[in-house]
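so my prof wants the structure for this chain in the C-alpha cells format not the other one, which i didnt know existed until like an hour ago. anyway here's the sequence
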Amino acid sequence: MKPTDPSNDLEAKVILQGIHVELTDAMTSAMQEKFGRLLAKDDRIIRINVRLHRDQTIGTEHHYVVTCQLEIGGPDLIATVDGREPYELFDAAAEKLSHLLERRHGLRKDKRNHPGPVELDAPLPKTAD
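here's what i got, hopefully its the right format
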C-alpha cells in the first residue's frame, strides 16, 4: 500500500476557481495555505470550493468577490467577502469559515451535552421507598 501524499489530498479537497480572473501561482498557493488550515482543524470536512470573481472595474481598481463553500456533513457552510485586494479577501473568507465551523461545533456540543426534555405519553411508575 502506497502512503498518501498530504499535498495531493489538499489539492483534491480545496477546489479553486477564478471567474473573469486568471489565478496566478501565488494566488493558488495563498488560497491553499489559508483553506488548508481549515482542513487540519476538522477531519469531517469533505471539500472546500473557493471562487474568486472579478466583479467590475471601479476607476483603475478592480472589485473582487470571494465565495467559499465548505462541504461537511449537514448543511454546507458558505462565506462571501468582497473588496479590492484579493489576498486580504482570502484571509477574511478563511476567518469567516473558521468562525462558522467553530459555531457549528459548539452547537453540536450543546445538543450532545444538553439534550432536550423527553416527553412520555404515559405517567412514570411510582417507586417503592
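also thought this was worth mentioning. Strands lie at 14-19, 45-58, 61-72, 77-83.
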